[in-house]
Design goal:
single chain; alpha+beta; Beta-galactosidase, Chain A, domain 5; elongated; disordered N terminus
Length: 562
């Protein structure tokens, strides 16, 4: 093969990456079990001078009930205890791909009140010396079911809380057609005889990622979603974008700063989906985290934003507003919701390559309406852009192939004297104007594209369950019948047959090259089929270019002789 060192390095990097990912999953840091003191503080204490967030203080009493709210993209369940959103179903994102046998699979449930998958969006008010409903207080609602009607653009859900002192709070959720943004308005009416002082807060409370259940080893090793970030995130104009794994919640140095921050948001994110509270843009909030050790033994994690002090005179009214995003991590949507919310699309260190790749793919998808075809067109564009560079690589490899008899003669002349052998080879390359390192130049493009596209396929929700043709129903998942990995292996074998091993390669390297196709077949068994599709098409393009270059080079002497 004409790219021996390139492919060897590529294979080693890919294998090392897979091993590192597996090691992180099995032996990397996991959430720490908090002490009793830490866990008790999680639900009831906030840092600094913030009033205590305690159990329900005064107000309505009675039994909590669940309210269902449905729009064209969301189905929410609101618990009147605290007015918390405890379930959210993303109606346009099914758990499994739609098929003829199952045309309407269950939708993804992001917020969930189950013990293992607990994830809730909570909000409330706290007061140091007055009545205030926190996320344990019982609210009242006019009905138990709300639905966005045909032709209706917005839907309001009001929850009411009153206290004997005269304090009345109305918590209003407003949902919009086609939107994953929910407006929250906590309105306080001071019907008491004295000034009411308090603060509004919003928080996300979540259990750690449950251990996935797989039916076989292939499903386990090919599940790319488990490698994505799962934890808390926040952003402010002062602190910028930060991530915090659940295992680091007990490390003081990793916590959000205790000072007030403006223009920010807090969230909990996972592969493809996000829940985030976004306070008013000019509101100065304090961010904090907490750990809760529940009675059932499940540890839960909280990220919270607490607003500034509200001082409300008797007979006055005030509102505290915020937005809640519960939905897919769509870059065009997120960047409009809040500053840098699109950074939750976790491309990691490869962002500099992944973002442009995603942009080009999205443009091509608009033209073709098929992400697989978009990937094929991306390959063709990259090959056109690198045509001259690849030509130079093949020309150099072809010259080295023709030098093989002379290099074999040098081996016989110098025997085991490797130093003199290498020196003679360098002189021969210089005389014949051959650059043996030319095959490494495409590595500068191949490796970044490989990992950039890998992150795009792993973290871009648009490609989740995106079908191609035939048996490929999900480009973000492994090829279920291994057709693409086998095709790529055939392409590699054809390249080896077309371009024998480079002259001067030692026997150990020659043996390694024989196993290269098998090695790549095994590696690509577990990679997203969209990534393997990219390399199949890219391999075919290079094979055709290689064949054309060799044919032209072999025909040149005949033309000269004629």
């Amino acid at each position: 093969m004409n790219q021996t060192r390139t492919f060897l390095l590529f294979a080693l990097l890919a294998v090392a990456y897979l091993l590192f990912q597996q090691w992180e999953q099995d032996y990397g840091p996991h959430p720490l079990t908090p002490s009793t003191a830490t866990s008790n503080a999680g639900d009831n204490a906030t840092p600094g001078t913030t009033p205590t967030i305690a159990n329900a203080a005064g107000g309505e009493t009675g039994t909590a009930q669940l309210i269902t709210v449905t729009t064209d993209v969301l189905r929410l369940t609101i618990d009147t205890r605290g007015g918390s959103i405890v379930r959210s179903e993303l109606l346009q994102y099914p758990v499994t791909p739609r098929t003829k046998k199952d045309p309407n699979p269950a939708p993804i449930r992001l917020l969930d009140d189950g013990a293992n998958d607990y994830f809730a969006a909570q909000s409330g008010l706290v007061s140091a010396d007055g009545a205030a409903p926190d996320h344990h207080a019982i609210f009242q609602a006019a009905q138990t079911s709300y639905e966005l009607a045909s032709g209706q653009d917005a839907l309001n859900v009001d929850l009411a809380w009153t206290d004997a002192s005269g304090i009345k709070v109305t918590k209003r959720y407003t949902l919009h057609r086609g939107s994953y943004v929910i407006d929250l308005d906590q309105q306080v009416d001071n019907g008491s005889s004295k000034t009411w002082d308090g603060q509004a807060y919003r928080q996300l409370q979540r259990a750690d990622r449950p251990a996935p259940v797989y039916s076989n080893f292939l499903q386990r090793i090919s599940d790319q979603s488990r490698y994505g970030f799962f934890g808390a995130v926040w952003y402010s104009t002062e602190d910028k974008f930060k991530k915090l794994e659940f295992g680091d919640f007990t490390k003081p140095k990793d916590q959000p700063p205790s000072n007030q921050m403006t223009g920010g948001w807090v969230g909990m994110m996972q592969n493809y989906f996000l829940g985030a509270w976004i306070p008013a843009a000019k509101e100065a909030d304090t961010f904090s985290t907490a750990v809760i050790n529940k009675e059932n033994g499940k540890t839960q994690y909280v990220i919270r934003t607490v607003g500034p002090l509200i001082s409300l005179a008797a007979g006055q009214r005030v509102s505290s507003t915020a937005q809640l995003y519960i939905g897919p991590k769509l870059p065009d949507v997120l960047e409009k919701v809040a500053p840098d919310l699109d950074l939750t699309i976790d491309y990691g260190m490869l962002k500099i390559f992944a973002v442009p790749l995603h942009g080009v793919l999205a443009l091509l998808h608009k033209l073709t309406s098929n992400w697989g075809v978009a990937i094929v067109l991306l390959v063709l564009l990259i090959n056109l852009a690198t045509f001259k560079l690849t030509n130079a690589q093949f020309e150099s490899a072809n010259k080295m192939r023709k030098l093989k008899p002379r290099i074999d003669a040098l081996k016989e002349r110098y025997g085991d004297d490797r130093q003199k052998m290498q020196q003679a080879m360098m002189e021969l390359y210089k005389k014949e104007k051959v650059n043996p390192a030319a095959g490494c130049f495409p590595l500068l493009i191949t490796i970044p594209i490989f990992y950039g596209l890998y992150y795009v396929l792993r973290d871009s929700v648009e490609l989740r369950q995106a079908p191609f043709f035939g048996w490929i129903h999900d480009l973000s998942a492994a090829d279920p019948y291994f057709v693409l990995p086998v095709l790529y292996t055939i392409v590699m074998l054809a390249q080896q047959w077309l371009m024998p091993v480079q002259p001067g390669m030692d026997p150990a390297q020659q043996k390694m090259m024989k196993f290269m196709p098998l090695m790549f077949a095994v590696i690509f068994l577990f990679f997203p089929s969209g990534l393997v599709l990219y390399y199949v098409v890219n391999g075919v393009c290079r094979l055709l270019q290689q064949w054309w270059m060799m044919r032209r080079a072999d025909a040149a002497p005949a033309k000269a002789a004629a």
